[in-house]
Design goal:
211 residues, 6-stranded antiparallel sheet, globular, UCP028451, CHP02453, TIGR02453 family protein
Length: 211
């Protein structure tokens, strides 16, 4: 297999079948497919991206079922997080739906959350983040994260950046699906271009609300 030729479409088919057969017997019978179609190609792409975007962590394919009503043992997607900062960085995933790319922060220690809210509240840094988020939305990214129903205590309800203050975590994602470049040597270049669009968000968090 050419590990520099992107991620094969068969990786998506693997996850489509897994959704219908999420059990140990099926997984063991198809584990080699996971290795060859998903893990190895994704690791090859991440290796190309790491020098610019940071160290890569490939998540385990096994689910933590201790606190879940859904007892399916395997994740329905393979994700990877790329960063030089704990909890702040870039995301890449492959599933039955194809590729998903993202960036932002997913950790929310009390100290970090306090720094984030203070920076959103401050005029200069808060307006800068609002512009970043608006630009990403206009570029087709979905703004996501863990969000409170109301503005947190200590801030007025009609705050000009009330929606950003509600965020406990903040990210943006894009679902290109199965574009033609997914299976080519251009995959890393295409992912990098979209991560560069996300870099202002990641850099803002690193500057104003580091872990």
């Amino acid at each position: 297999m050419n590990t520099l030729a992107g991620i094969p479409g068969a990786a998506c088919e693997f996850y489509a079948e897994l959704e219908q057969n999420n059990n140990r017997e099926w997984w063991l019978a198809h584990k080699d497919q996971y290795h060859d179609l998903v893990k190895v190609p994704l690791e090859a792409v991440l290796a190309q991206l790491m020098p610019v975007f940071g160290d890569a962590k490939l998540f385990r394919p096994y689910r933590d079922m201790r606190f879940s009503l859904d007892k399916a043992p395997y994740k329905r997607a393979q994700g990877a997080f790329v960063s030089n900062y704990e909890g702040v960085g870039f995301y890449l995933q492959v599933s039955a739906d194809g590729l998903l790319l993202g960036g932002g922060y997913r950790s929310f220690s009390p100290a970090q959350l306090s720094r984030y809210r203070s920076a959103v509240d401050a005029t200069a840094s808060g307006e800068a983040l609002a512009r970043i988020v608006e630009n990403l939305a206009m570029a087709g990214f979905t703004i996501d994260g863990q969000i409170l129903k109301t503005v947190p205590r200590g801030f007025v309800r009609d705050h000009p950046r009330a929606e950003l203050l509600k965020h406990k975590t903040l990210g943006a994602s894009l679902l290109p699906g199965r574009p033609e470049w997914m299976e080519t040597a251009n995959l890393a270049t295409e992912v990098a271009a979209r991560w560069e669009q996300l870099r202002p968000l990641v850099d803002w968090v690193i500057r104003y609300a580091p872990p």
